[in-house]
């Protein structure tokens, strides 16, 4: 179903199910030989949501690639391993540099507030829709997980006035912040993406940092890939067409937008990020849309 203003979801429907999808990939990536990541909460969270296809993937009775021979589905686990590690390292580097406030925009089933070794005094804010955050908190409490930092869940839609909600939860705009927008931008309308960065910029004290990733063609090619994968996964009963959840339209490239707002920006292509972790990104045509993705980090001067 296409997007609508003010649409809502839980972790088993619409945009929320994409959080379950990527958590399933983290669960698989965490149990590979020589893993890049260790997310012990991904599998129990995916099982708690209960989307049959993803539960089977984390239980090992199905794989993402079972109905795909292009290589793109198989690569999903590697892409998520590298992406997760990139954002993990971003937060750990920021903490090592003395940043004590972190905001995870669109946190989904991200468990960094529970699994990263945050320094004393760190405070991690997570923003996502209410049903997403409530479900995750309850599911993690059920398995006895406790946050490894001060943890504040801010239930608000990122198309609405989220800075007010963030402030109301104790966000301090006078100290530097580490922000992540992981797996988010294509799910926002293009103007909401610009507004998101406007808000982040306005809330960022000097020395703040930001990490995100995006597709330079605004997700058109990645949308085709997502549609093909969704069609294959529907054979296994997962009937959300992920490409329908993307907002189409021209977008300002985040690197340009942020540079214009006083951020020192650097980007790396996905093969470069892979290489930084000693991994090789494949060369097949089916992987081209995934290859073009850019990982961005920025520092507010
Ligand atoms: C692909 S998932 C990524 C989740 C998480 N960042 C990760 O990488 O595991 C997309 C997430 O964006 C959230 N999201 C998308 N649009 C949103 C909006 N307008 N307001 C709040 N959350 C949103 C969804 O609820 C979902 O959790």
TrEMBL record:
SUPFAM superfamilies assigned: S-adenosyl-L-methionine-dependent methyltransferases (SSF53335)
EC number of the protein: 2.1.1.-
GO molecular function: methyltransferase activity
Name of this protein: S-adenosyl-L-methionine-dependent methyltransferase
One BP term from GO: methylation
Similarity annotation: Belongs to the UPF0677 family.
Keyword Amino-acid biosynthesis: no
KW Transferase (keyword) present: yes
Protein role: Exhibits S-adenosyl-L-methionine-dependent methyltransferase activity.
Keyword vocabulary terms for this entry: Methyltransferase, S-adenosyl-L-methionine, Transferase
InterPro entries on file: Ppm1/Ppm2/Tcmp (IPR007213), SAM-dependent_MTases_sf (IPR029063), SAM_mthyl_Trfase_ML2640-like (IPR011610)
Enzyme class: transferase
One Pfam family of this chain: LCM
Record lineage: Bacteria, Bacillati, Actinomycetota, Actinomycetes, Mycobacteriales
């Amino acid at each position: 179903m296409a997007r609508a203003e003010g649409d809502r979801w839980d972790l088993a429907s619409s945009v929320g199910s994409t959080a379950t999808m990527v958590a399933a990939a983290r669960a698989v990536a965490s149990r590979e030989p020589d893993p890049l990541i260790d997310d012990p909460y991904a599998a129990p969270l995916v099982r708690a949501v209960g989307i049959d296809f993803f539960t089977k993937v984390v239980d090992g009775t199905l794989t993402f690639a079972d109905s795909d021979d292009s290589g793109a589905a198989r690569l999903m686990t590697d892409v998520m391993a590298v992406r997760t590690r990139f954002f993990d390292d971003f937060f750990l580097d920021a903490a090592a540099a003395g940043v004590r406030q972190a905001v995870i925009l669109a946190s989904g089933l991200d468990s960094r507030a529970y699994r990263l070794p945050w320094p004393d005094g760190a405070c991690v804010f997570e923003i996502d829709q209410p049903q997403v955050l409530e479900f995750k908190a309850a599911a993690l409490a059920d398995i006895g997980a406790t946050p490894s930092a001060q943890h504040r869940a801010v239930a608000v839609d990122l198309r609405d006035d989220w800075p007010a909600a963030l402030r109301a939860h104790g966000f301090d705009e006078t100290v530097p912040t580490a922000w992540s927008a992981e797996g988010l931008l294509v799910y926002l309308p293009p103007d909401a993406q610009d507004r998101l960065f406007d808000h982040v910029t306005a809330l960022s004290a000097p020395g703040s940092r930001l990490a995100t990733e995006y597709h330079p063609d605004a997700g058109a090619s990645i949308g085709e890939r997502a549609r093909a994968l969704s069609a294959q996964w529907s054979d296994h009963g997962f009937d959300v067409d992920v490409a329908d959840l993307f907002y189409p339209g021209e977008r300002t490239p985040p690197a340009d937008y942020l540079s214009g707002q006083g951020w020192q920006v650097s980007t790396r292509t996905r093969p470069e990020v892979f290489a930084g972790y000693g991994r090789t990104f494949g060369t097949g045509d089916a992987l081209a849309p995934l290859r073009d993705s850019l990982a961005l980090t920025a520092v507010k001067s």
